[in-house]
Design goal:
Blueprint: H1 2-21, H2 34-38, H3 40-51, H4 55-59, H5 61-69, H6 71-74, E1 86-90, H7 108-124, E2 127-131, H8 138-148, E3 155-159, H9 160-168, H10 178-182, H11 195-198, E4 202-203, E5 206-207, E6 224-228, H12 229-234, H13 240-245, H14 251-261, E7 274-276, E8 293-296, E9 299-302, H15 307-322, H16 332-340, E10 344-349, H17 357-360, E11 366-369, E12 382-384, E13 388-391, H18 399-413, H19 416-422, H20 431-441, E14 445-447, H21 454-460, H22 469-474, H23 480-499
Length: about 500
């Protein structure tokens, strides 16, 4: 009986070790289930349940939990030997510790991140390295590499409008496909991959990339609105934060404030205060629950011609052109400077700009709120037209090692709660601004699906000849009906060519 007890204890230990190492794995083996990887509590319960229902198994639950939460110091040997392996990431410099020109780290967090990578090397034996992006057109180069079996790196980091064409050319491994799953990849694991962004990599019913976000590598976020508190209060809206909480921050309110704010304040006959500064360049339409392009009637086509889409284009027209509340002559940077100088009510921004000169040198109190909702929207969204995804080229010759290394690295850089703590660096002037970021902006990421490929985007956005649907609406003065009629056939032809319809 004593020998049986010892064997059972050894078996339980093996099961727990396997479950811990599969933190980001996708195996369907009960000892390495995704459920066990999702949270510490789930890991503990699964290990106990899988091992059995004996008293010994049940009473070790607290020990199991502690072993999982202290994995950094008690990590078992990996199932795959990673000693000497280099996880090479093409175009991956922004995923590694940021450094100054003199070789020092940009801040203490980045130095801490570098130490974490050294810990990974000591523990598992592998390193993470950024590879330069190959010269020339990325899509053409990586497609040719796939055909020739040439590997530039085991992983790559690129925008969706380059990843999807590569996926079409069989140059990217689908992360939910049999090959990736068999290697232990689990794209849906929240501890490893930032799901609000990752889900947007889907195309052709497959997931092609993943995203991370934490204190060391910032998560992808879309546009939001920064507002001049004094100008908005003068228009009768002294608490836009509460409007957001009440889901009453809408296009109508935005336009009302913008029109009130647009004034000739010194009486010289020239408008010197404006409602709108820099914008989200067409991505505003998604805040009505619509997209420029999507699948309809079994094929990809222009979808902004729906009733909800026409409403969205009308808002785009009114905000930029129709109401005269945006200075169409000034450049985007000039508009941002005007906001900094207290001469603009609303400036649409992304996370990277909040630490830039236009905000750090602002002469007025400003706040941060999500994009306003259109009449068809159910929730706020934070939209952007381009986001980079971590993806695996089909030329990867070390897939099991790559996946094992990614599974060990990802939890270090994917921690949204820790990222929120970093925003006390001045990006969020008040606790209410932090609330807006954490509750309404960061979790509600959305991608502008007009940017499927560079060619499709050029006809949706700007065709380099002063046209394109967004240009026509925002700057050329076309009404929604005129812009749809003028651009529909060109956009549909570009979609037909890409999707082979």
């Amino acid at each position: 009986m004593k020998r049986y007890t010892r064997l059972l204890a050894m078996l339980m230990a093996v099961l727990m070790v396997a479950s811990m190492f599969a933190a980001c794995g996708g195996s369907e083996d009960p000892a390495t289930t995704t459920t066990a990887a999702t949270t510490t509590a789930a890991t503990t319960t699964e290990a106990t349940t899988t091992a059995g229902t004996t008293t010994a198994a049940t009473t070790t639950e607290a020990t199991t939990t502690e072993a999982t939460t202290t994995e950094a110091t008690t990590t078992p040997e990996p199932a795959v030997d990673l000693d000497g392996y280099v996880l090479s990431i093409v175009n991956g410099a922004s995923l590694l510790p940021a450094m100054n020109a003199d070789g020092s780290y940009t801040n203490s967090l980045q130095e801490e991140y570098a130490d974490k990578l050294l810990d990974l090397e000591a523990e598992y034996g592998f390193t993470v390295e950024a590879m330069d992006k190959p010269e020339g057109d990325f899509i053409e180069t990586m497609t040719a590499a796939a055909l020739a079996g040439i590997s530039y790196g085991d992983v790559a980091y690129e925008q969706q409008y380059r990843v999807w064409p590569l996926a079409k050319n069989n140059a990217v491994i689908p992360l939910d496909g049999d090959v990736a799953v068999a290697a232990g990849f689990d794209w849906s694991n929240e501890e490893c991959w930032f799901q609000p962004v990752t889900v947007w990599s889907e195309m052709w019913d497959h997931v092609w990339g993943v995203s991370v976000g934490g204190q060391y590598v910032a998560p992808a976020t879309g546009y939001f609105v920064t507002f001049n508190k004094e100008i908005c209060a003068a228009a009768g809206y002294s608490d836009l934060y509460q409007l957001v909480r009440d889901h009453e921050w809408t296009w109508d309110v935005y336009l009302e404030i913008a029109e009130h704010a647009t004034q000739d304040t010194d009486g010289d006959g020239v408008t010197d205060q404006w409602g709108t500064g820099a914008t989200a360049w067409g991505s505003e339409v998604v805040s009505n629950g619509v997209q420029f392009c999507g699948e309809r009637d079994g094929k990809w086509q222009l979808t902004i011609d729906s009733d909800a889409g026409i409403e969205a284009l009308q808002f785009l027209y009114d905000m930029n052109y129709g109401t005269g509340t945006c200075d169409l002559v000034a450049s985007n940077n000039e508009k941002r400077q005007m906001f900094s100088d207290g001469k603009v009510a609303f400036n649409w921004a992304d996370m990277g700009r909040l630490m830039g000169e236009f905000y750090t040198a602002s002469t007025h109190e400003y706040g941060i709120i999500p994009m306003p909702m259109g009449p068809r929207a159910e929730e706020y969204v934070s939209v952007v037209s381009g986001v980079a995804f971590i993806h695996i080229p089909s030329t990867n010759k070390n897939l099991e090692k790559t996946v094992a290394a990614l599974n060990a690295w990802a939890p270090i850089v994917n921690d949204i709660d820790a990222y929120a703590e970093t925003m006390t660096d001045g990006r969020c002037p008040t606790d209410e601004d932090m609330e807006m970021m954490v509750e309404y902006i960061i979790p509600n990421f959305a991608l502008n699906m007009g940017r499927i490929t560079p060619d499709i985007w050029s006809v949706v956005d700007d065709n380099d000849e002063g046209g394109g649907m967004i240009n026509d609406i925002s700057y050329n003065g076309m009404t929604p009906a005129q812009a749809i009629e003028h651009n529909r056939s060109v956009i549909n032809a570009a979609l037909d060519m890409f999707f082979g319809q």
